[in-house]
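ESCALATION

Customer reports they have been waiting on this structure for their group meeting. Please prioritize. Original submission:
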Amino acid sequence: STYKMSLRRVGIAAWDIVRYVFLCRAGAVLRLIDEKEAWDRILGMAPKAQMIFSGWNEYVFSYFAGRQFWLGKNTVDFANEMREVIAELFAHQDGILRDLDWHTPLD
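Update from on-call: job pushed to the front of the queue and completed.
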């Protein structure tokens, strides 16, 4: 409910996407799927994420809201900690979130 208004359109979809990528990687490590299939699935998710989210800010915020929900730490203190982590992610001038344009063509 803390994020109800700010994430009305996307919810915690970024959390779901990150977990999907993790499971693809884990599946390849455990040899449940081969590495090519894992990469095909992972890279197939990137354009979908671009369509769902307006940019890195919305994606990161959605991810951390999902993480907070998953951990069951729906407190203001935890939300403030996550806000600090998010600010740090965007603070670095040479960070990937500044260098990689969200709308980079992926085809």
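Sent to customer with the following note: The helical segments are 13-29, 35-52, 56-71, 76-91, 96-99.
Escalation resolved.
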